[in-house]
Design goal:
Elements lengths: L1 H11 L10 H23 L8 H16 L11 E8 L8 H9 L20 H11 L3 E11 L12 H4 L29 E11 L7 E12 L14 E13 L2 H5 L12 H8 L5 E9 L3 E7 L11 E5 L3
Antiparallel strand pairs: 1-2, 1-8, 2-3, 3-4, 4-5, 5-6, 6-7, 7-8
Helix pairs in contact: 2-3, 4-8
């Protein structure tokens, strides 16, 4: 662990030239790749962390700590794309930022009763009680959990260029004529829209006696804003904070709506962000903190109004569109 920390600090020093042949940098990347593979294997063996033993959880915590210690400088543009939940310390549906905001909106509320199945005692958080009750409901399965992020910019590498601009030419006939910059990813650096988007999609299937199996994709939308127009992190070179504002929640592609058209209006989109604001001013805004980010994997946590990460909530994603 100490060698990884030292190698990472040395790598980040601006006065030290970084060379592709640098053995310490190569070794650091190889170690991180090996740790990523172990994490992927652990996720597969434990059903995304939902069936792991105490030893499995300890191994997960150690892998996360090692990867975070060796995290490269965060390039915010890498956040863009479709991500699949690989491992979760919470029930996978809680990877949706709506549930982080709900915890924030009810932070002052407590439960008057115990929920033994979730280890919740009277006086504990109301959100803990609600989630414990939800987790104990039988006859439902959680399928894939995905997040699609778009429009996130980085102060150094700029903003992603839409596909329609990829082949745009300024008509220049030779290399001596300057380009108008429309094909340069940094052309929109510091400009353009200061807002990106996040969409969380969690597949749910319910099996109730006497009724057909029902499925839906619980979809939560959010706008993404950074601490400045370039979404630069203010917490360190290897850590990236994105501010999310909850928008709507929808039970998309619901088989219930297909069989009972009258139910379609009840499935959304529901203005969940507005509802959260009515419950508690400012509760619709949460922070997504990413502490390890590469082209293939990210480790993220929710940060609520108190600015502290809940150690219970760690989500590991792998990118789907590689």
């Amino acid at each position: 662990m100490l060698s990884l920390l030292v190698a990472n600090v040395v790598y980040l020093l601006p006065s030290r030239p970084v060379r592709a042949t640098d053995s310490s940098l190569r070794g650091l990347r190889m170690d991180a790749a090996a740790d990523e593979r172990q994490l992927v294997q652990l996720a597969a063996l434990t059903d995304r962390g939902q069936r792991g033993s105490p030893g499995d959880k300890s191994q997960f915590n150690a892998l996360v700590a090692t990867l975070e210690a060796a995290a490269p400088p965060a390039d915010a543009q890498l956040m863009n794309g479709e991500w699949r939940l690989l491992y979760s310390t919470e029930t996978p549906y809680q990877s949706s930022p709506f549930f982080w905001a709900f915890r924030q909106a009810t932070s002052m509320a407590t439960t008057p009763i115990a929920i033994p199945s979730g280890g919740v005692l009277p006086g504990d958080s109301l959100a803990d009680a609600v989630y414990a009750i939800t987790d104990a409901i039988p006859f439902y399965d959680i399928g894939s959990a995905r997040v699609v992020i778009e429009g996130v910019c980085d102060e150094m590498t700029g903003c992603p260029v839409p596909d329609e601009f990829d082949s745009t030419s300024d008509g220049a006939s030779d290399g001596d004529e300057p380009s108008d910059g429309t094909s340069d990813p940094s052309a929109k650096r510091g400009g353009g829209s200061a807002t990106g988007s996040l969409e969380s999609r969690v597949e749910l299937t319910t099996r109730l006696f006497g009724l057909p199996v029902a499925s839906s994709i619980m979809t939560t939308t959010a706008t993404v804003e950074g601490t400045d127009p370039a979404f630069a992190s203010d917490t360190g070179a290897s850590t990236l904070d994105l501010e999310l504002t909850i928008g709507t929640t929808t039970a998309a592609q619901s088989t219930l709506a297909q069989s009972i058209p009258q139910a379609a209006g009840l499935l959304g989109p529901f203005p969940s962000g507005d509802a959260l604001e009515m419950a508690s001013k400012g509760s619709s805004k949460v922070t997504l903190r990413t502490t390890y980010l590469t082209e293939s994997m990210r480790i993220s946590r929710p940060i609520l109004a108190d600015g502290v990460a809940d150690p219970r909530s760690v989500f590991v994603y792998t990118k789907e569109d590689l």
